[in-house]
Amino acid sequence: MTDYILSIDQGTTSSRAILFNRDGELCATSQQEFPQHFPNDGWVEHEPDDIWNSVLSTCQGVIKQHNINANQIAAIGISNQRETTMIWDRTTGEPIHRAIVWQDRRTAATCSELESADSKNEQTIKDKTGLLIDPYFSATKISWILDNVPGAREKAERGELAFGTVDTFLIWKLTNGASHTTDATNAARTSLFNIHTQQWDDDLLALFNVPKSILPTVLDSSANFGTVDPQWFGESICIGGVAGDQHAALFGQACFEAGMAKSTYGTGCFLMLNTGKKALSSQNRLLTTVAYRLNGEVTYALEGSIFAAGTTIQWLRDGLKLIGDAKETEALALQTPSEHGVYLVPAFIGLGAPYWDPNARGAIFGLTRDTGIKEIVTAGLQSVAYQTKDLQKAMELDGVRPTALRVDGGMVANNWLMQFLSDMLGATVDRPTITETSALGAAQLAGLQVGFYDSLSQLSDLWQRDRLFEPSWAKEKRDTYYDGWLESIEKVKQGETSSL
Ligand SMILES: Nc1ncnc2c1ncn2[C@@H]1O[C@H](COP(=O)(O)OP(=O)(O)O)[C@@H](O)[C@H]1O
Ligand SMILES: O=P(O)(O)OC[C@H](O)CO
Questions:
Q1: Which atom belonging to ligand 2 lies closest to the Cα atom of 10?
Q2: Cα–Cα distance between 448 and 222 in angstroms, integer?
Q3: SS3 317
Q4: What pTM does this model have?
Q5: Nearest to 101 by CA among 56, 135, 52
Q6: Are the C-beta atoms of residues 163 and 85 closer than 8 Å to each other?
Q7: Rounded distance between C-alpha atoms, residue 260 and residue 474, angstroms
Q8: CA within 13 Å, CB half, 454
Q9: Residues 26-68 pLDDT 10s
Q10: Nearest to residue 309, comparing CAs of 251, 367, 266, 248?
Q11: How many angstroms does the Cα of residue 141 sit away from the middle of ligand 1?
C-alpha cells in the first residue's frame, strides 16, 4: 500500500522535503539551508552540489524520520525556486557554472540593450511570454553563461549541454540523466516559451541567442517526469508533479476558480490571481503566466512579483542585528505607536512589480530623534503590506480584484502583519492550516498523476482555514498610510517606471 507523497520544495535559501498522506496532512518535514554566494555587486549564485545534496539529504531524512520504507511512497512532487538557471554537460552531468539565481542582476545592461535595440522587442516578448524584459528571467542568464564560460557556446551548438531551471536539474539528477524535462509553469518563466502556443519560440530563441538544443521537453504540471533511480531512496519512484513554487502554492491553496488569489510571503512575495482559461495581459506591468497545465489544458494567472519580503526581516536580523529572530518582529510591532511615520523601502536589488526598476536602491524615511529599533522593524514588516497594496492596486487598474486572498509562506505566522495587511488592503486575508502550500501543491499534482487524487474538487475540499483576518480601518486611514509609502517609492526610483 502506497500511503505517502514525497514533496520536494527547493527554495532560494533552503531545501525542504515533506511527506504528505492521502488527506493532505503533513506527516514529516526536513529542512536544510545552504550558502548564498554574492561574487559581485548584484550577483547571486548557488552551488549546484549544495542544491542537490540538501535535497537528497532532506528526502532521505523524512523517510527515516517517519520510519517508512520508500516503497510506501506513491510519487514525488517537485516545487522549486523559479527562473534560477543552470547549464550542465549532458555526458558527465557536471554543471559548467554555478546556478545564476533569480535575484541576480548581472544582465541588467543586456536587458537595457534589448529594449533600446528595437522598440518592438518589449511588446514581442510581452505578447508571447507574458513577461517583461528584466534580468529576473532565465533567458539572459543562459546567454551570459554561454558567453562567459570558455567554449560553452560551441558545445551548446553541438548539442553537448543541457539547460534547466532547478526542477529540471533535480529531475535529471534523480533519474540519473534519463529525463531532461520541465513543466509548463517553469518554462513560462524563461522568456523563451510562448505561453499561448505552449512551445519554445524560435523568434525568442533568436532574440536571446539561445540554441534550441539545450532546452528540456515541456510537460503538463501533472505528468510522468521520469522514475527516480533506486540508488537514491532504495526504490524506483515516479516523479509525477512539477511546478514553480508560486504556481504550486496557488494549486496547494486550491485557487482553482478564476478570481481566486494567493500571496506567498517567503524570501520574496508573489501574488498570483487565477484568470482561468484567459491569459489576461496587464497594462500595469504585472506578469501573465501559466497557473498550471493539466491534460494539456492551460489555466492562466496574473502575477505580481516583489523581490523583498522575508529578505527584509533577514536583513534586520543579520545585517543591522536589530533582532535575534524573525519571530521577535511581532512583539516589537505590537509595542510600536501606530503613528510612527517611518517608511522602509527594501529595494535591495531594485524594485519588482509594478515598478520594475533594477537600479532603485533601498532607503529609510521619516527618522526622528525618537525613532528606535521597534519603529524600524515595524516599518520593515509594513513594507511587505504596502508592496502587496501596490500589486492589488495594479490588478484593480487591470480590472480584476481577487475574490479571496489566501496567504502562505514563513511570514504569515506573524499575526500582527496579517492584520496590518488586511487593514491596508481593505480585504479579508485567509490563512490556511497548512502554510507549506508550495510543497502541498506539488504533492497534489503528483498525487493526481498516480491516482492518489482524482479531481480538483476533491483537493478543494482538503483546504482548511486556520484564521481569517478582517479589515478594520476606514478608507481615509488606509489612504493616509499608503500615501506616505507612495511618496517614499517616488524618492527611490531611478528609472522611468510606472507610477501608481
Ligand atoms: N514570525 C515572523 N515574522 C516575520 N517574518 C518571519 C517570521 N517567521 C519567519 N519569517 C521570515 O519568513 C522567511 C522564511 O519564509 P519561507 O517561506 O521559509 O521562505 P523561503 O521559502 O523563501 O526560503 C524568512 O525570511 C523569515 O525572516
Ligand atoms: O524561493 P522562494 O520561495 O522565495 O521563491 C522564489 C521565486 O520562485 C522566484 O521567482
A1: 1
A2: 7
A3: helix
A4: 0.93
A5: 135
A6: yes
A7: 25
A8: 1
A9: 999 999 999 999 999 889 999 999 999 999 999 999 999 999 9
A10: 266
A11: 27
* Interface predicted TM-score (ipTM) of this complex, two decimals: 0.96
C-alpha cell at 379: 516599518
Phi and psi at 333, nearest 5°, equal -65, -40
pLDDT tens for residues 174-228? 999 999 999 999 999 999 999 999 999 999 999 999 999 999 999 999 999 999 9
* Residue found by looking up cell 486550491 in the block: 254
User: How many angstroms separate the CA atoms of 333 and 265, rounded?
Assistant: 18
* Residue 232 pLDDT class (50, 70, 90 cuts): very high
Closest atom, ligand 1, to C-alpha of 438: 21
Tell me the three state secondary structure of residue 134.
coil
Q: Which pLDDT band holds residue 356 (cuts at 50, 70, 90)?
A: confident
Sign of the four-CA dihedral 443, 445, 450, 456: positive
- Kindly provide the b/e burial profile for residues 205-218, where b requires at least 16 CB atoms within 10 angstroms of the residue's own CB: bebbebbeebbbeb
% of residues, the chain, pLDDT over 70: 99
Distance from the alpha carbon of residue 123 to the mean position of ligand 2, in angstroms: 25
Q: What is the edge-to-edge ordering of all strands in the sheet holding 429-432?
A: 287-294, 297-306, 269-276, 260-265, 404-408, 429-432, 465-469
Strands 260-265 and 269-276, how do they pair? antiparallel
Task: Quote the crossing angle between the two packed helices 108-117 and 138-148, to the nearest 10°.
Answer: 110
Ligand closest to CA 83: 2
Ligand 2 atom closest to the Cα of residue 11 is 1
The number of CA neighbours under 13 Å toward the Cβ of 290 is 32
